[in-house]
Amino acid sequence: MLQRFYGLAYFSAVLLFVTLTGTQAECPVKLNPQRAVVRYNGSVEVNCSTSITHKGMGWEASEGAVPMTRDKIIAWRVSHLTEWDIEPFCFINHEEQCQVQLPVTIYKTPDSVSISIVDHRGPMIEGQQYKLQCDVHDVAPVQYLTVKWYKGQTLLDKTTFTEDSKTPLNETATLLIRPDRADDGAQYRCEAELELGAEGPQPPPKETSGSLNNELYYKPKHSSSTETIIKNDEVTLNCTVKANPAAMYTWHSEHLKEEISTSVLQSPTLSPGNYTCTATNSLGSDSKVFIIESEQTDRTTFWAIVISGVVVALVLIATYVIVKTRSSNNSII
After folding, report:
1. Per-residue pLDDT averaged across 198-223, rounded?
2. How far apart are CA 112 and CA 191, in angstroms?
3. Do residues 215 and 226 touch, judged by C-beta distance below 8 A?
4. What whole-number distance in Å separates Cα of residue 60 and Cα of residue 74?
5. What angle do CA 154, 156, 161 make, to 5 degrees?
């Protein structure tokens, strides 16, 4: 008998729970907006309205509670919202009391955003890998935070976070890079953006780090390994190449009687032949061969072509005259 009593009591409790859940799911109130996004210590106002006759409605909240009223619209207002985990709800007495909770997101932009290179000081070296670090201090909520990485105006990557926290946290994001000589002078930066959805501020609030202006070292590298130059009144051999640290230059040729350390040779007295220039810095070296050809050789080739053309033309003219003459003789006979 006692077991049957407990069974009926359990069934009644389940039935009551189902009834209340169904009533809450169909609670005849509407929130506008349906979600509140508020800057920390900022103001907020949300209306709760109904279209039915009721016995009273109001707001329950740890800040800005509104006493029960018979009006059909009431507003929840807070001028300086500072409670991170606030959970306000609007309730109404209609047949039974039901309530609708207002989702509230309180956000705070970072106190600071900074960028650095992890475990490295001094210039970066071309081709080596480095880790950039972006430190974001005192930001909330981090699950809405996106860190964006830029090189100049180019977006390199994005970092998002999964922590479900309402209060401010410090966050760190990292990015691996492998710079080359094309990145010489490039400026890296990171940007912390809070993407709070359609109800949040537009455009999304963001804070940007300063620029990371780190020097890049790379060895000399010529665009080509050889260059041919026709000797005329003035010959210029230009071995200048980009390198960091700046390159030192040495020239080698059987025609040079002394050591030359400039990047450019310019002289009317340079003899035809090969001249090898080597550019060197602390990271390596690269050589280029300049081939000076005699202008006379070039003219001989030119006149050979001209004479050959003239000979061919004369042969064609002679052939034409002979054919023409024979044709005329045949017509007379």
Report:
1. 94
2. 10
3. no
4. 12
5. 130
Nearest to 131 by CA among 119, 123, 113: 119
Would you call the peptide bond into 220 cis, given omega within 30 degrees of 0 as the criterion?
Answer: no
Coil vs helix vs strand at 27: coil
pTM (predicted TM-score): 0.73
Cis peptide before 28 (omega within 30 of 0): no
Q: What is the pLDDT of residues 231-247, one digit of tens each?
A: 877 889 999 999 999 99
Q: Region 170-198: what's the mean pLDDT? A: 95
Tell whether the model's pLDDT for residue 85 goes beyond 70: yes
Contact 99, 43 (CB under 8 A): no
Residue with the two structure tokens 């860190």: 147
In this predicted model, what pLDDT tens digit does every residue of 265-290 receive, in sequence order? 988 788 899 999 999 999 999 999 99
- Nearest-angstrom CA–CA distance, 92 and 187: 58
- CA dihedral sign of residues 268, 270, 273, 276: negative
